[in-house]
Amino acid sequence: MKIAFTMTEGKGDLDQVLFQFATTQEAAGRKVCGVVQVNTDRADCVKCDMDVRVMPEGPTIRISQDLGKESRGCRLDVDALETAVVAVEKQISQDAELLVINKFGKHEAGGRGFRNAIGQALELGVPVVCGVNALNRQAFEDFCGGAAVFVEPDPKALSDWFASRP
Q1: How far apart are CA 113 and CA 34, in angstroms?
Q2: pTM metric for this prediction
Q3: Contacts of 40 (CB under 8 A, 6+ apart)
Q4: Higher-scoring residue by pLDDT: 3, 1
Q5: Quick one: three-class SS letters along 91-129?
Q6: 46 HSE (CA, 13 A, CB side)
Q7: Which of 163, 155, 157 is nearest to 16 (CA)?
Q8: pLDDT tens across 136-146, in order?
C-alpha cells in the first residue's frame, strides 16, 4: 500500500501544490485520477468559488455554495461533492497510475466523501496522494492505519515520492 499526504498552512496553498503536482504527472503521460481544487476569487464576495476538476478528463464541478455575504456556515455543496466522488470512482481502474484527492476533509473523516475511492485505489495497487488539514489529520491517519507517509507540500517532493514507488 502506497499512500502519502501533505499539508500546508496558507489558505489555498495546498490546492496549488496538488494542482501543480497532478497536472505535471498528467503532462508526463501518467494516468492520473482524482480531483484537484481550483479556487476563483470573486469581486462581489470575500469568499472564493471552489471548483474541483475531476481527472483525467473532467468535468469541473462547483463544490461551494453562495450562502450570502454575512454567512458563517460551511459553504460546501455536499451534493456536488458526491457528484465528484461518483465521477472519480468511475475513473479508478487497474490502468490508473495515481489517485490525487484534494482534501481528506470533514466528510471523509465522517466516513463519507472520497474514502471508498481511496480504498478502491489502494486495493488495486494505485498510489494515492491526499491533501489533509490539521483538523482531520488524526482521522486520516486512523483511516490509513499508520501506513501513510507525510511528504513536504512541494510538487517536486511529491513527484519524488511518486517516482520511488515499487
Answers
A1: 12
A2: 0.89
A3: 48, 49, 51
A4: 3
A5: HCCCCCCEEEEEEECHHHHCCCCCHHHHHHHHHCCCCEE
A6: 5
A7: 155
A8: 999 999 999 99
